[in-house]
Design a protein that fits this description.
The structure is a homodimer of 380-residue chains. The first copy, chain A, is α/β, with parallel strands linked by helices and 380 residues long. Helices cover 36% and strands 25% of the residues of chain A. Chain A has helices at residues 10-22, 48-51, 69-78, 88-104, 121-131, 143-155, 159-168, 177-180, 183-197, 216-225, 287-302, 355-368, and strands at residues 2-6, 26-31, 43-44, 58-61, 82-85, 109-110, 134-140, 200-201, 207-208, 228-237, 243-252, 265-272, 276-283, 316-317, 325-331, 340-344, 347-350, 353-354, 373-377. In chain A, strands 7, 9, 10, 11, 12, 13, 15, 16, 17, 18 and 19 form an eleven-stranded mixed sheet that branches. Chain A has a six-stranded parallel sheet with strand order 3-2-1-4-5-6, sandwiched between helices. A two-stranded parallel ribbon of chain A has the order 8-14. In chain A, helix 3 runs parallel beside helix 4 (88-104), helix 4 (88-104) packs parallel to helix 9 and helix 6 (143-155) packs across helix 7. The longest helix of chain A has 17 residues, at 88-104. The first copy, chain A, is globular. The N and C termini of chain A lie far apart (51 Å). Chains A and B meet through helix 5, strand 13 and helix 11 of A and helix 5, strand 13 and helix 11 of B.
Chain lengths: 380, 380
Amino acid sequence: MKIGLLGMGTIGSGVYEILEKRGDIEVQRVLDLRKIAGLGDRLTARFEDILEDGSIDTVVELMGGLEPAHEYVVRSMRAGKNVVTANKLMVSRHFDEILRTSQSNDVAFRLSACVGGGIPYIHNLLRARRVDFILWVGGIVNGTTNLILDTMQSSGEGFQEALREAQRMGYAEADPSSDIDGVDARSKLTIAMNLAFDGVADTNAVLTEGIRNLTGQDIRCFKKLGFACRFLSSARRLEGGAATAYVEPTLVRPDAPEAAVRKNDNMISFEGAYAGVQHFIGQGAGKLPTACAVVGDLIDLDRRRHLSPFTTNGAPIAIDNAQVGHRYYVRTAARLGIPAEKIDDRAYLTEPVSVARMHAHAEELRVSDPGAFFAGMRDE
Amino acid sequence: MKIGLLGMGTIGSGVYEILEKRGDIEVQRVLDLRKIAGLGDRLTARFEDILEDGSIDTVVELMGGLEPAHEYVVRSMRAGKNVVTANKLMVSRHFDEILRTSQSNDVAFRLSACVGGGIPYIHNLLRARRVDFILWVGGIVNGTTNLILDTMQSSGEGFQEALREAQRMGYAEADPSSDIDGVDARSKLTIAMNLAFDGVADTNAVLTEGIRNLTGQDIRCFKKLGFACRFLSSARRLEGGAATAYVEPTLVRPDAPEAAVRKNDNMISFEGAYAGVQHFIGQGAGKLPTACAVVGDLIDLDRRRHLSPFTTNGAPIAIDNAQVGHRYYVRTAARLGIPAEKIDDRAYLTEPVSVARMHAHAEELRVSDPGAFFAGMRDE
């Protein structure tokens, strides 16, 4: 098996290292605009050198970003090449097109590294749905924000200090927006629900609240309430093909399994009608863990053990968050328009309210109070 | 695909129910000595009716026990039939013979349901070891004992009450010895380490301490120490092909992931050199979860996506528990022969001592104090 590797960044170099040690899967060409020592003639800056190389049967897309990653994936499939990718943002936006293109060109598409990095979540979801009926997907899907929350709660540090520490440790990027605003989590949840519920959801319709506005006062309130804060994603099937789907900071009891997820670990879960709830805990990012997921996909293709993510006609999944609700912690200087009990200076616990209403009301609050923060409360 | 089902007990009837709804895998014959309504001519009390039926390509062994399960599995393989089993006790005893027989007869052998019931642990271990180097396997592999421990710690009930409650709920058997004495956990750990470390360990050499002697006084001591008790299994590679391997009640900090495992859930884990530690949490037993694992194996065989558990020459794995140690909680009326601090009436915290020495010393203590109890302490 010969592959073309698009992008020799952190994950790409991890995949390259592992494959060079193995010997069964050959890195024929590497696309990267930078000079990279040791690759010799295999390095190219022209995608066409990979596209037109008939000896390459599989393209591994590890460039990240929307374009040209999306274009290269589609063109590779049309040229009859299998595709393996770790690009959750791109896959969540172009899910239907990519799956249809892989099917119409009779090539394989694998995306294990898109959700959970080194955690074998997608593979298990694909296996489980062959037998079981998946009712729910969710969990802690972003390690950077879990590290920030864990640091703030254990050390009493403020948000900016905890973020800077995560950046120093290499767990947060220079521009942390995608993590702390929930874009990364939303992409992963969208992919998981598409696979689990056999359809295509609009990732922009997933209600998403990040942790950018979290303060030390909020953390003190959570402790006073006896709760821990985790950044949770959740998507549940409703009757008739629709689903709830949202990402928000969530207060959980300290003995909840989510509260035991420390540092930058992930805990990704699904619930089957037969097998019940399953949680998968591990490193959701990082060079070698994520590279393991990519290489696992390549071995599956090499040994023809492909589990296709495509089972559906691509029916749209309508997202309806009016059907789900709970209490919320809200901290705002603006006038709260939801019945609530005041628990601290400008901090409230609301009555149970739908997820749709709370996220919509938060937008209203931010007109006068851009720093408003809210978190769902799981108090069962 | 046509199967012969050996045993129509809890798991067998779960498998039957799921397969009847699917239609892609046909239950051709069922072996059971009891009369079972609805099976008609398919029911037989003679194993030979399955062995000699050339239309049956796969035998599903769900009888449990050592014999005749072991004999039937070997004879099925020799007759050219694939085997899927959930029988951890039998597989842990006859691992090498079964794997060699499957290889020499060129038939598939799948054992997903042997460890973790509905939790896809073995499948993921087999997938991970294709890429990664597995350093450690372990965790909470027995749901009945976790339920007993969780009940005792949350309600203050004694051991006998908690056991009877587990029996009433259907989670503990009338004779609970295999669970509470750790035989079930030891079988699972043996299978996991054989697969992870590519060899064959003697299951009788796995040092095993159960929870039969646990009392309310012990639970009160754990609380005073600020620890929770979980029933943990652990096997770690040593240099040169040997491994540590033991099963014992273990005190963990209340914020450890194991402490968050509630009721009869399992948390089964492995550590890879690349991917780090991964935990798999879910229902480790029960009719439909375990049946899901069996049916998943059958679908893999039907679609020729078999992951072979056989990669090794069956080299023996020597077990050496002198190479690992920690502090222990010990409650005994006999004279403790290990340096220790007294923390309660007849209850002690020892200095760090090897697992081998503690398990051997407990045998000595029990000559005069058959009710002595000990638990490892993980205080990092």
